[in-house]
Amino acid sequence: MKTKFSLLILAVMFVFSEAMAQGKSKITVGVIQYDWTNLDKSFKELHDAGFGSCQLNYNAKAANKTSAEQVKAVSKKYNIKVTTLVGVPGHSVWNFRQGPATIGLVPTEGRAEKLQTYHNMIDFCVEAGIPAMHSHFGFIPEDPSCAQYKDFIEVMKSLAGYAKDRGIMIYFETGQETPTTLIRAIKDIGTGNVFINCDLANLLMYGKANSLDAVKLFGNLIKDVHAKDGKYPDPKNPYELGEEVNIPLGEVNFPLVIKQLKKQGYQGAITIECELDGNQHDYVIKTRKYLQGLLDN
User: Fold this and answer.
1) 233-254, pLDDT tens digit by residue?
2) pTM of the full predicted structure?
3) β-strand 244-245 against 229-230: which pairing, if any?
4) Is residue 139 a part of any domain in this protein?
5) Is 12 helix (H, G, I), strand (E, B) or coil?
6) d(Cα 186, Cα 222) in Å, to the nearest integer?
7) Within a domain: 17
8) Residue 48 is assigned to a structural domain of this protein
9) Of 253, 257, 258, which is closest to residue 292 (Cα–Cα)?
10) Residue ranges of the alpha helices (H) in the chain?
11) CB atoms closer than 10 angstroms to residue 18
12) How would you label 204-243 residue by residue, b for 16+ Cβ within 10 Å and e otherwise?
């Protein structure tokens, strides 16, 4: 009798634990990793702080076969998944006056050098076992019939093809275009390996969309998410981006956004766009706990 009772208790506990596991979010909370000087130390700090993933900020001087092997080793050692390699090559001005003419691959000036850097990033992803690279690729024109849009699409097709041949995905970081414009561009590129790193604050700071509406529109195109908060551009100064502020002091509705991501079946990472080391350490730790609390509800 005792044996049967014990088996019954074990069975109930197993069913309960399975139900808990199924209800638990598979979304990880990550942070951007900038420091390449001691990767073992940096990844250990991420692990000890409770992070499950990170994005690696590209460092052209440090990226080589040796560091690629180190990234693979420390990722496995500390169970930190590197979700993307992120970088914005070339001269970039982050405002509305000069941004369209300097950022990404829409402008032709400096394009060849930027493309070489992107190729190098893709090659490093292969060596380091990182599934994707992402970047701001520029202010995509809204008119799909204009020459600048068509030229940009052809350039992106070539870059995406280079990545696809090597088994790497490319993510657009959101913000500099409306969600519909970005969805159209991805469809027109058409290589099947181009997706979205959804920066929730950029959508607001560039004045392009409400974050929650954008998440609904993007749907399963979202493969990574930047946790950042901000405000719409100031109508009194429409030449500058909106203000970036600490989470949750801006206009990103994180509770509703995370609820929507879970509803859509998102299982990637929510990556805090900030550095764990330095003056931001306490903010990053506090923000991780805040986001994890929303994920666990």
Assistant:
1) 999 999 999 999 999 999 999 9
2) 0.90
3) antiparallel
4) yes
5) helix
6) 12
7) no
8) yes
9) 258
10) 2-23, 39-48, 65-78, 99-102, 111-128, 147-165, 179-189, 200-205, 211-218, 254-263, 281-296
11) 10
12) bbbebbbbbebbeebeebbbbbbbbbbbbbeeeeeeebbb
Domain around 194: 25-296
CATH code of the domain in which 168 resides? 3.20.20.150
Query: Tokens for 40?
Result: 């073992």
CA distances from 184 to 100, 107, 153, 162, 197 (A): 19, 19, 10, 21, 16
The mean of the pLDDT values for the chain is 92
Q: Would you state the structure tokens that stand for residue 211, as one six-digit string?
A: 């974050």
Eight-class DSSP state of 106: S
Q: Could you tell me how many helices (H) and strands (E) the chain has, helices first?
A: 11, 10
Residue found under tokens 């590197």? 82
Q: Compute the distance between CA of residue 202 and CA of residue 174 in angstroms, rounded to an integer.
A: 7
Taking a C-beta distance cutoff of 8 angstroms, is the pair 145, 196 a contact? no
Q: Is residue 183 part of a domain?
A: yes
| pLDDT of 283 higher than 60 | yes
Tokens of 210: 């409400």
Closest C-alpha among 233, 196, 230 to residue 216: 196
Q: How many separate domains does the chain show?
A: 1
